[in-house]
């Protein structure tokens, strides 16, 4: 049975199967809002597709890695919510798009019914009977998703829900086939700081069991950095810039220089605003960590993960916590960990 792993974040969605791994926005567009551009967009090489689901068949949606390059006359449909997210129509649509996008690589989904098991995660505060039941109700069962007019049938036979930050632990301790490669993690006290798009999660595991202490969930994820930079730019008379512009600029820059270009004729250097916001956000993060943990001397492994781990000032973090480890490819660490957990579960069921 195929394994699909999903990390359906507030700002970014990460998905993985045996055939692909992708990072996509956690927002989408009504297909009609592409207006007269729709034909040229979908005939081009932009990675944007048209989606239709069986439970919302009156509407078609545009979603894909290059969604922000598609000029639209409508607003993006966001899935960011801090309460009851899993019961929203937006989250249900995003989930179906993600399942369909992974399924389109498999012939069984086109010619019959592709059977899969899904491994996903939720913030630790949502790792309770009610929220886990809600997300399982969304994911489990039959899904019919049409992508670019091609119908796909997927049957989700099983859903396994993990506390989200544990994905990073499994990514670090298991190899690509699901075999244990870091046995020391089984007996350590590990603290994970997971900086997502919407939330900061701080969790502590002792011998791979979630501890009741050393835990916090704050609604101050990466979006807060983007908002700080945007507000600072607007105060500096850089008009027209939005948080979405800032997010795109920071994702595309590979150095310490950041520019806002509202059109091909104008360019504004916003580097000073980015630098100040990153330092401010990092200091607030350190304060949150210290308040939550009340001491770090007992921590064996201290991991910083999530897409937002790329936004903080690493020098200040290392000055505060000299044994801190910044997880490689932190944005996709959880989804890779979910997938490896799925592989390990299959090995266990096979008695290997």
Briefly, what is this?
The protein is of the alpha+beta class and 352 residues long. The protein is built from 10 helices and 18 strands.
Helix-strand layout with pairing:
Elements: E1 2-8, E2 12-16, E3 21-25, E4 27-30, H1 38-43, E5 49-53, E6 61-63, E7 77-78, H2 89-103, H3 107-111, E8 114-122, H4 129-139, E9 141-147, E10 150-163, H5 166-173, E11 189-195, E12 200-206, E13 209-210, E14 216-218, H6 223-235, H7 243-252, E15 259-263, E16 266-269, H8 271-293, E17 301-305, H9 314-320, E18 324-326, H10 333-349
Parallel strand pairs: 1-8, 8-10, 11-17, 17-18
Antiparallel strand pairs: 1-2, 2-3, 4-6, 4-7, 5-6, 5-9, 9-10, 11-12, 12-13, 12-14, 15-16
Describe this entry's structure for a reader.
- By secondary structure, this protein is α+β, with helices and mostly antiparallel strands.
- The protein has two domains: 163 residues, ATPase, nucleotide binding domain (Nucleotidyltransferase, domain 5); 147 residues, ATPase, nucleotide binding domain (Nucleotidyltransferase, domain 5).
- Helix content is 33%, strand content 28%.
- The strands form three sheets. It has a ten-stranded mixed β-sheet with strand order 3-2-1-8-10-9-5-6-4-7, sandwiched between helices. Strands 11, 12, 13, 14, 17 and 18 form a six-stranded mixed β-sheet that branches. The chain has a two-stranded antiparallel sheet with strand order 15-16.
- Strand 17, helix 9 and strand 18 form a beta-alpha-beta unit.
- The longest helix is centred in the C-terminal third of the chain and has 23 residues.
- The two termini are 17 Å apart.
């Amino acid at each position: 049975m195929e394994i699909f792993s999903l990390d359906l974040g507030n700002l970014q969605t990460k998905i993985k199967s045996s055939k692909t791994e992708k990072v996509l926005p956690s927002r989408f567009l009504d297909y009609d809002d592409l207006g007269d551009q729709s034909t040229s967009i979908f005939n081009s090489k932009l990675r944007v597709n048209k989606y239709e689901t069986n439970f919302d068949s009156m509407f078609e949606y545009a979603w894909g890695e290059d969604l922000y390059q598609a000029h639209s006359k409508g607003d993006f449909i966001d899935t960011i919510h801090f309460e009851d997210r899993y019961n929203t129509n937006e989250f249900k649509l995003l989930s179906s798009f993600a399942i369909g996008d992974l399924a389109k690589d498999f012939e069984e989904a086109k010619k019959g019914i592709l059977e899969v098991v899904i491994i996903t995660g939720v913030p630790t505060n949502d790792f309770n009977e009610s929220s886990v039941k809600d997300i399982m109700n969304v994911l489990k069962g039959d899904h019919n998703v049409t992508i670019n007019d091609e119908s796909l049938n997927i049957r989700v036979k099983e859903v396994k829900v993990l506390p989200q930050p544990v994905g990073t632990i499994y990514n670090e301790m298991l190899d690509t086939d699901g075999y244990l490669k870091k046995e020391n993690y089984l007996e350590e006290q590990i603290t994970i700081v997971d900086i997502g798009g919407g939330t900061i999660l701080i969790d502590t595991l002792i011998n791979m069991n979630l501890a009741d202490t050393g835990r916090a969930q704050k609604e101050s994820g990466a979006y807060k950095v983007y908002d700080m930079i945007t507000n600072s730019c607007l105060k500096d008379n850089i008009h027209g810039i939005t948080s979405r512009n800032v997010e795109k600029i920071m994702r595309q820059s590979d150095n310490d220089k950041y520019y806002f270009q509202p059109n091909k004729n104008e360019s504004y250097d916003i580097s000073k605003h980015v630098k100040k916001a990153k330092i401010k956000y990092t200091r607030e993060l350190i304060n949150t960590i210290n308040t939550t943990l009340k001491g770090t001397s007992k921590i064996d492994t201290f991991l910083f993960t999530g897409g937002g781990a790329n936004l903080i000032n690493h020098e200040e973090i290392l000055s505060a916590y000299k044994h801190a480890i910044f997880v490689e490819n932190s944005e996709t660490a959880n989804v890779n960990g979910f997938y490896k957990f799925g592989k390990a579960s299959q090995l266990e069921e096979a008695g290997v």
